[in-house]
Specification:
The complex is a heterodimer of chains A (398) and B (206). With 398 residues, chain A is α+β, with helices and mostly antiparallel strands. Chain A has 14 helices and 9 strands. Classes of the chains: A alpha+beta (398), B alpha+beta (206).
């Protein structure tokens, strides 16, 4: 039970703080817009960033402490340029959306296991009914359940395996589609395409390698992998804007003093990006992206507004560098994503449906555990959840 | 859901009481039963079959549909695949409400008019009655009795629908069947001529 009266003072302070922060953010947003409009051309900016990137390189090899996660402009021209959606017929392309869900291993459950499920929707833009697809993996071997130190695996490890499975399913579906169409096939996943996990331990390295392999399979099958990040956090563009304001000699020394730190890129995009428009492409010089680049899968990103004037919906679109350079394909992808967003307030329809197909509901979990319990019973094992789990169940019913 | 030459299993009981029950179904549109369809469900561990009439069919919505309802346009090529996906891949749950009219004792095959001794249990399967069963149930106009006393369902529409469905199965004796039912209604509704007229007029329209 929570005694709200005991934290009343803190709640009042929180309210005041939020009002002050709002004012500060508003001023920072105005400044960010000015900096974006005044920013020099992409080529000049890249040249300006050279000492910073060299310092970041040295840090990556252990010869320094600088970590810079800013965006590096990849497209020519001014960085405040916007590319509107072209009015092209949506007939000759395939969009495959994929998403995953899981049941985490629970040491208080009647038996240790975890489950991954990946759902997909294949939307062909040919007037026919889209095709649904789902695949699941039930893991119960000790080698899958425990890490190298003997601890039960956590959400991060499961998240890695799920991400690998999503891209592997996409690779299979692209290959399948490719047999019947010569049209562009976009393989859209709900989340970043750039591997978001820090490499820690053997298992993380294995998953990352498998992930890069799966991205390669999508490419080999003739598909274009696309990551879709709804309401993206992070501020690579704001970091770039700050770096652009610094004189070359103070670039390394003052890079961490960004006065726009309290903002994120999507807040700026909400102010400036027109409905349907995409920003130019950027990349990031992180260790993870270098590893991607080593496998020919360096990730570029841009921001997109899939919403309307009254209800903007900012997303970060991530694609491999080899795909970002395909102008015709990117124009088609932009038009397709705009169309997909029209139906669901700026969120792609294929991803919403893929999520629905992937979702393991509480009811599904109950049915699965009943089936497991029946099997255990017929094998002469009477499995019970832990006392703690039973107590929680009873208290949860209050 | 299984289909035989004459019977279709339409779904499972969601909630029930003596007077009727609600069935949850995910069958495709052509197989959804119509208003006035005779259906049966097992009760008392299969010793008895409750017989009822479908009096309401409701499609359940969800947040997805509520959103799409204002953004997609039937007939617009930009909405074509989305509408097909919603209709064919996402089978929307249908709730079918049934009112009890009697029950069948499976041991003797006799029909009893009135409320069953027990409601059907949840998750029991509901089946559309075949033509022979409908002829047997409606052999006596007494099957109308529980309907005439029921004010919770639209019986003035349901009674004509059920009578016309049963009459259709008696091409040789259609007129006699309807006349006999009309006399029964006249006796039962002698003190409510307006209601009687409304029901008879509805039958006469067909």
């Amino acid at each position: 039970m929570l005694h709200i009266e005991r934290i009343r003072e803190e709640i009042i302070t929180l309210g005041h703080r939020a009002a002050q922060d709002r004012q500060t953010r508003r001023q920072a947003l105005v400044l960010a817009q000015v900096w974006l409009d005044e920013a020099v051309e992409a080529g000049q900016l890249r040249a300006h960033l050279a000492p910073l990137l060299a310092a970041a390189d040295r840090a990556a090899t252990g010869a320094g402490a600088l970590r810079w996660h800013g965006g590096i402009p990849c497209s020519p021209g001014k960085i405040n340029r916007q590319r509107p959606t072209e009015d092209i017929p949506l007939t000759d392309l395939v969009l495959i959306g994929v998403d995953g869900s899981q049941i985490y291993p629970d040491r208080h459950a009647l038996i240790l296991y975890y489950l991954l499920q990946v759902g997909a929707l294949i939307f062909r833009y040919d007037g026919n009914t889209p095709t649904v697809h789902a695949r699941e993996w039930l893991r119960y071997d000790e080698a899958d359940l425990y890490d190298d130190q003997g601890y039960l695996i956590g959400g991060e490890t499961l998240g890695m395996e799920r991400m690998v499975k999503e891209i592997e399913v996409l690779a299979d579906l692209v290959e399948q589609e490719r047999r019947s169409t010569a049209n562009p096939v976009f393989a859209l996943s709900d989340g970043p395409l750039l591997w978001p996990y820090v490499e820690r331990g053997n298992r993380a390295g294995t998953h990352f390698t498998a992930y890069l392999g799966a991205l390669g399979k999508v490419q080999k099958a003739g598909g274009i992998p696309v990551g879709y990040v709804d309401r993206p956090g992070g501020r690579p563009l704001l970091e770039l804007l700050w770096a652009g304001r610094l004189a070359p000699e103070e670039l390394v020394a003052r890079i961490e003093e960004n006065p726009l730190k309290m903002l994120s890129d999507d807040e700026l995009m909400l102010e400036v990006l027109a409905p349907g428009a995409w920003t130019p492409w950027y990349t990031r010089a992180t260790a993870t992206n270098r590893r991607h680049a080593g496998d020919g899968q360096e990730i570029w990103f841009c921001y997109a507004n899939l919403g309307t004037q009254h209800s903007p919906a900012i997303a970060r679109i991530e694609v491999p560098a080899w795909a970002a350079g395909q102008d015709v394909a990117m124009t088609a992808l932009q038009a397709a994503l705009s169309h997909q967003g029209e139906a669901l307030d700026g969120y792609p329809y294929v991803l919403a449906r893929a999520h629905e197909e992937a979702l393991v509901t509480t009811q599904d979990k109950t049915m699965l555990e009943q089936a497991i319990q029946r099997e255990l019973f017929s094998a002469g094992i009477l499995a019970q959840p832990s006392n703690k789990a039973r107590q929680k169940l009873l208290l949860g019913r209050k | 859901m299984t289909t035989t030459a004459q019977t279709i299993t339409i779904g499972n009981v969601l909630r029930a009481d003596i007077r009727g029950f609600v069935v949850a179904s995910r069958i495709p549109e052509p197989e959804v039963p119509t208003f006035g369809t005779f259906v049966s469900a097992p009760v008392q561990q299969g010793r008895t079959e409750v017989i009822g009439l479908v009096y309401n069919i409701s499609l359940q919505d969800d947040p997805f549909l509520r959103n799409l309802a204002v953004t997609v346009t039937p007939g617009d090529p930009r909405s074509e695949e989305i509408i097909k996906d919603q209709r064919e891949n996402r089978v929307i749950p249908v709730e079918i409400a049934v009112v009890s009219v009697g029950y069948r004792l499976n041991e003797t095959s006799a029909y009893v008019y009135g409320f069953p001794p027990q409601p059907p249990m949840v998750l029991n399967s509901i089946t559309v009655c075949d033509e022979d069963a409908i002829r047997s149930i409606t052999a006596s106009p007494d099957f109308l009795r529980t309907l005439l006393d029921n004010r919770d369902v639209p019986t003035d529409e349901l009674i004509p629908a059920a009578l016309l469905r049963a009459a259709q199965l008696r091409p040789e004796a259609r007129r006699d069947f309807l006349l006999s039912a009309g006399r029964y209604l006249a006796r039962y509704l002698g003190r409510d001529p307006i209601r009687l007229e409304r029901i008879l007029a509805r039958i006469d329209q067909e």
